[in-house]
Amino acid sequence: MLPVGEAVAERVLRADAQRNLEAILDAAERAFAEHGRDACVADIARDAGVGQATIFRRFESKEDLIAAILQRKFSMLLEAAEQASGRKRAWDGLREFMQTATQMHMRDRGLFEAIAERLMADRRMVEMKGRLLESIGALVERAKREGDLRKDVAAQDVPVLVCAAAQAGTTAGRADPELWRRYLQILLDGLRADGLRARLKPVPPPAAH
């Protein structure tokens, strides 16, 4: 057992290391979301308030840093899916999950589009993606049983529709960064078994010339 003074010092060092790690990941998320794979490690280190050596002690390569970010993103999506599964009606949970996922995709579009695809071969990513699809699948099947969701919808449709809503929001939403909500709602309306329609977010007026 370590002396009390050494034990306290070790806990402080661990806490400092954890704060540094979170700062690095936060800065890297911002950098990759904006610049994709062209993000510079030196800029990430500067934004995080650490030296480049600190980053490379944690991550041997830029790919390892990207993988850590994606793991954190998948963890957030898994948590959102678990929260969604706790809703009384599965439809409400599915809608909320798709809103959360679309918002994340909009915020981190540069990261996902520039680097996520090539990391899908990573075993850790494949495992987390599988867990996420299982969770979404359980939500989808329950929403079908409860009569809210079309019977022909599959769990694999959900990530594709999330990407479609984010893409539509990016293309058409320069005047309104929240316009993705309109396109997601149109997609959600198309998924309903009962034909109910929600009020759409208005389209902003055309820009004056």
On the 0 to 100 scale, the average pLDDT is: 84
What is the CATH H-level superfamily of the largest domain?
A: Tetracycline Repressor, domain 2
CATH fold-level name of the largest domain: Tetracycline Repressor, domain 2
Distance between the termini: 74 Å
Q: Based on the coordinates given, report the CATH architecture of the largest domain.
A: Orthogonal Bundle
Question: What is the N-to-C succession of helices and strands?
Answer: HHHHHHHHH
| Structural class by sheet pairing and helices | mainly alpha
Helix segment count?
9
Helix share, percent: over 70%
Number of domains: 2
Uncertain parts: 4-10
What's the layout of helices and strands?
Blueprint (H helix, E strand, L loop, with lengths): L3 H32 L5 H8 L3 H7 L3 H24 L4 H18 L1 H8 L6 H23 L11 H16 L7 H12 L18
Task: Provide a descriptive summary of the structure in words.
The protein has helices at residues 4-35, 41-48, 52-58, 62-85, 90-107, 109-116, 123-145, 157-172, 180-191. The chain is mainly alpha-helical. It folds into 2 domains: 1-58, Arc Repressor Mutant, subunit A, CATH 1.10.10; 66-209, Tetracycline Repressor, domain 2 (Orthogonal Bundle). The N and C termini lie far apart (74 Å). Mean pLDDT is 84; it is low at 4-10.
List keywords for this structure.
71% helix, Tetracycline Repressor, domain 2, mainly alpha, Arc Repressor Mutant, subunit A, 9 helices, 2 domains, 209 residues
